[in-house]
Description:
This protein is mostly helical. Helix content is 78%, strand content 0%.
Amino acid sequence: MNDDSRLNEWFVPKFGPQRFRMFCGLLFLPYTGMCISFVVWGSLIAGSPNFERLAILVLIYFVALGIGAHVADNIGSKKIKPWGDVFNKRQSWLIILACMGFSYGLGLYYALLYAPLLIFIGIIEGFFLFAYNFELFKGLFHRNYWFALSWGMLPFMAGFVIQTNSITPICLFFSLIPFILSYIEIRISRLYKYNKRNNTKRSETYQLEILLKLLSIGTISLTFILLFAYAILL
């Protein structure tokens, strides 16, 4: 590992072997939690959600994007990654393919049973997993708004679709909320990482870290509140 600075990130555990800590850091769990939260929001907006389908979709997104996409990002970026030696390239590809195989196999099963429209969302998400993380097409899709679409809007729509097999104006309207939150998160995160990597503007970096904590933890906390409120109202 060329630089252990990211082991000091707030979302990296302070305990355990270094390899374990690096792997947890690689998963960016607070931001993965935001993505999963948007899946939950989409299902709740649909009304009377089937929680088995919701749980399955949460699992799919955690495996495919939380693990697979982050491992892909670690080997696909044109820049040096601080998590680079967690897995070698062969191991990384095995993890990516295993995650994709598991997620698409399970997703296809549930899509064919309940929501064929989910197949199209899965295809689009798969495209972004490679186009964004491997910076294909000269990095055309490695942009903040594509990140917001693939990690914010589409997970929300997937949560809605698996419950209803439809995309309605209400779904599209509310999907703008996770799009905006994801866009804000990636904008702040890029500036935060730049400052931290170059050890500049420490005061600003600290403020940006606070904002990232509030945004991610706030989003996840709101999700639990919504689930608790829904359970009470049942």
